[in-house]
Amino acid sequence: MSWRALKSSEISKLGLSGSGAFVFLLEHERPVLLRRNSFKITSKIISSIVPGACLMKDAYGKPIVPGGALSISISHSGSCILVALANVSVGVDIEYLRHRHQWLTLYEWITFPEDRFLDPTEIDFLESWTAKESLVKIFGRAVDQGIRSISIPVVRSRAFRRASVNGRCFWIKPLPQWKEMVACLALAEPCAVLPYYLTDCASWCAE
Fold it and tell me: Which CATH number is associated with domain 4-205?
C-alpha cells in the first residue's frame, strides 16, 4: 500500500460504496492555512464524493455527516492534513517526532509495560501514539482522557491489528509513511483502505 497521486477533479469518480475507507493527504508550505481551512477542505472532499452531503460538528467537535451513513476523521500535523472517510466508524491521526530527546519517556508514559518493545525505535513510538489517538478520535474525546488507557498489540506489521476500547473491538492499520510523518487509521471493521495524496488543492487553502 502506498500513497496514490490524485487531482481534486478526480475525487468525484471514486464513489464510496460497500465496505471501504478513503484517506486523503494534503500538504502545504503554510501549515497554518491547512489548520484554518480543515473544515472547508473536508467539506469539499465530502461533497465531491457524496453530492449534497452536509458536514457538521457534534458536541465533542467531531466532524459528522447527519444521517450516520458516513464517518469522518481529520488530523493535521506539521505541513500535512489527513481526512479519512468510511462507511463505518473511523479515526485517523498523523504525527512527526516533535521531541527528539524525550520520545522514549513519552513512549513509556503512553504504553503499558506489556505493550512495549524491548528495543523501541522512534517509529515504534509514533505508530503507538497515532494508533491510540486514532482510536480516541472515534469517540470524539480529548486525548488526555483516554490515550494512556488503550492497549495496542506489540507487533511490527502493516496489517490490521485488533484493539479493544471501552469493551468495543476496533481495528487499527498503520498508513504508509509520508516523509517524516507517521499515520494510523482506526476502524470499527477491517476493510479495504485507499490512501490518496491530493496534488492540486492549494486553492482550497486560500486566505
Answer: 3.90.470.20
* Position with higher pLDDT, 8 vs 53: 8
In sign, the C-alpha dihedral spanning 159, 179, 186, 105 is positive
For the stretch 157-202, pLDDT in tens is: 888 999 888 788 899 999 999 999 999 999 999 989 999 999 987 7
Q: Return the C-alpha cell found at 31.
A: 501549515
86 and 24 Cβ atoms separated by less than 8 Å: no
CB burial of residue 118 (10 Å; 0-12, 13-18, 19+): exposed
CA dihedral 18, 21, 27, 30 (to 10 degrees): 100
Backbone angles phi, psi at 144, to 5 degrees: -70, -5
How far apart are the C-alpha atoms of 32 and 2, rounded to whole Å? 26
C-alpha cell at 122: 522512534
Which amino acid, residue 203? S
- Its pTM stands at 0.91
Kindly report the backbone phi and psi dihedral angles of residue 122, in degrees, each rounded to the nearest multiple of 5, phi listed first.
-60, -35
**Residue 39: alpha-carbon gap to chain centroid:** 15
Kindly give the pairing relationship between strand 63-64 and strand 56-57.
antiparallel
In contact, 99 and 92? CB cutoff 8 Å: no
Q: How far apart are CA 55 and CA 20, in angstroms?
A: 20
Residue-wise pLDDT for 40-99, tens only, equals 888 889 888 888 788 888 777 778 888 767 889 999 998 999 999 998 889 999 999 988
